[in-house]
Amino acid sequence: MLLFWVLEFALAVFACEPTGDTDAASRNDCYRKDCDGTVYDIQEATCCENKLHPGASLSCCGNEPYNPETATCCKHNLTASVTQDLSEKVSKCCDLKAYNPVNEICCQSTIISKPGPMAECCGKDVFDKDKQLCCGPADNKTILVRNSRHHECCGHSQYDTETQCCCSNEEKLEIQSKDSSCCVKNFTPGVQKQITELQPNCTEPNTHLCGSSCYNPKESQCCERNQKPHWFCASGVSKTTPTVYNPRTQVCCNGCVSAWKPWIDQCCGETPYGSAQRGVLCCNKTLYEDRDDGEECSEMGIPYNPAKGTICCSQFHGSPGQHCCGTEIYRPHAEICCNGHRHLKSENIYCCGVKAYNIKDPQMKCCAGTLYNLTSLDEHGGDAQCCGSILQKPQDICCSSEDKEVLYSAKTGFRCCGHFYYNTTLWSCCAGRLRSIHEAGQDQRKMIKESRLLSVNNLNKANLCKVYIGAVESVSLQSVVFTNVLKVYGMEAKVKALPLPYVLETNDRCSYPKLIPGKTYFFNKDNIFTGFINDSFLQSLHFIISECSPRITTHRKSTNMPFAY
């Protein structure tokens, strides 16, 4: 009974100490939450205003569920609305409607196509700042064709700033020559304002500043919080500013000052303690006292004795030495664990999010943790493409960069530049960078192709099963040098190390994505690929060999590695 009381107390303490890391908190809770009395997995559903909605990767927009990968939630005046077919990764909101800021602009609650990359609003209309001027008072604007880059507004007219000035004459604006009496009289040099913070002037011997106090660094130190928001120390005293303390008689733990004792040598959150102390255990920045020897911290940060049982997230199991899968224990020789969900092992079974599937089945497609049955979706297995966690439709296009994959509805005259989808009348693209088509020094012939980083998950087997892996050493206009290169023989489940750096010729540098020196990429003689975004390099390599090799199987009770070098 004592053990269960301790667990209940530890859970209560943990719940009152949010870490600020939402993802970590979700993992610690095994992705389980409560929705009006129903416990659910946030990987498989979402709860919007106490109503449960099944589906992976969902969020709430008011009381409506939506997928941020393919839609955007806009909120205005306590109202929320979902705009479909535009990912939240690249959108902005214009009141309750989402738009693509690369190609569009919001002017007084109206979404308008940009006439140029430097477009700005002129009342309810839009103008190209490079070619036009927006002149007049705020309630009566007029768009003018800009005569030159030296011209600026003077009322509803424009003047040449090199030869003229805009003078206020009896509450009227007039354009006059720079040498006119009005221009000379009204000319005042600009005054640069310097803003200085109001801080005390610390002088000898108190030369250092701690919050609003000065102190002598030979006698005192400054105790500051690692995170700046308002907080309370264990003593209950509110702390909003740094505090000066004496390190000979006091100790500072994450912004809180306590009395020093000879055996104190470290901090547990805001509480000081010593490694020589008996019966104390620091878990998740909380110090627990009166603990038994042999106790450890669980993954959730709860003290427990591994010799007496196993804690899986918040669930205690009386069997010691077990493996956890979510809140339950599982048998790794007979089962596989997919993000907290147990599945029986069988040949070629792998995880895709919370589900398990046969990696050799051409009708099953795993897209960033979301599993699709291509037969039920009336899709052709060999043609199905992933765009992040979304299965791409033939009429859509996927634009991808180092860290994002975004799905767009295909449009005439638009192309990918990394994860952006741009209007070719406004922008050009080179090596994943958008540029104004008016930018000087551009060679338009080299900027008409797309530039995006493809994923190995979308390669057909002919290309997937024979790729290279290497780290980028340097990049030039004509080639890319890779080091530590491995050649993958997927059909044979082997890799071979190449002895020298590999030079990949790139006849059109602009059509290749931006490459980061030192980073590892997959590539062949024609293209460069990224692994699964947000997954490890090893996971992508494992996927390639598992897909390609006919010899790779996963048998019940098998403990062998699934591929060889």
Report on this model:
Among the domains are: 68 residues, no CATH class; 69 residues, no CATH class; 38 residues, no CATH class; 92 residues, no CATH class; 95 residues, OB fold (Dihydrolipoamide Acetyltransferase, E2P) (Beta Barrel), CATH 2.40.50. The chain has 5 helices and 59 strands. By secondary structure, it is mainly beta. The two termini are 52 Å apart. The longest helix is centred in the N-terminal third of the chain and has 14 residues. Strand 54 and strand 55 form a beta hairpin. The radius of gyration is 31 Å and the shape is extended.
At CATH level 2, the architecture of the domain at 454-548 is: Beta Barrel
* CATH class type of the domain at 454-548: Mainly Beta
Q: Share of helix among residues?
A: under 10%
The global form is extended
Number of strand segments: 59
Low-pLDDT runs: 1-27, 188-198, 443-447, 554-565
- Beta-strand portion reads 35-45%
Overall mean pLDDT stands at 84
What structural category do the secondary elements indicate?
A: mainly beta
Instruction: Calculate the terminal CA-CA distance, rounded to whole Å.
Output: 52 Å
Biggest pleated sheet = 7 strands, mixed
Could you say what the CATH topology of the domain at 454-548 is called? OB fold (Dihydrolipoamide Acetyltransferase, E2P)
* Rg calc: 31 Å
Number of helices: 5
Summarize the structure.
This protein is 8% helix and 41% strand.
Provide the fold topology:
Elements: H1 2-15, H2 22-28, E1 32-35, E2 38-41, E3 45-48, E4 51-54, E5 59-61, E6 64-66, E7 71-76, E8 79-84, E9 92-94, E10 97-99, E11 104-107, E12 110-113, E13 119-122, E14 125-128, E15 132-135, E16 142-145, E17 151-154, E18 157-160, E19 164-169, E20 172-177, H3 181-186, E21 208-210, E22 213-215, E23 221-223, E24 231-232, E25 238-239, E26 243-245, E27 250-253, E28 256-259, E29 266-268, E30 271-273, E31 281-283, E32 286-288, E33 296-297, E34 303-304, E35 310-312, E36 315-317, E37 323-325, E38 328-330, E39 335-338, E40 341-344, E41 349-352, E42 355-358, E43 364-367, E44 370-373, E45 385-387, E46 390-392, E47 396-400, E48 405-409, E49 414-417, E50 420-423, E51 427-430, E52 433-436, E53 454-455, H4 461-464, E54 466-475, E55 479-489, E56 494-497, E57 502-505, E58 520-523, E59 528-530, H5 537-548
Parallel strand pairs: 53-59
Antiparallel strand pairs: 1-2, 3-4, 5-6, 7-8, 9-10, 11-12, 13-14, 15-16, 17-18, 19-20, 21-22, 23-26, 24-25, 27-28, 29-30, 31-32, 33-34, 35-36, 37-38, 39-40, 41-42, 43-44, 45-46, 47-48, 49-50, 51-52, 54-55, 54-58, 55-56, 55-57, 58-59
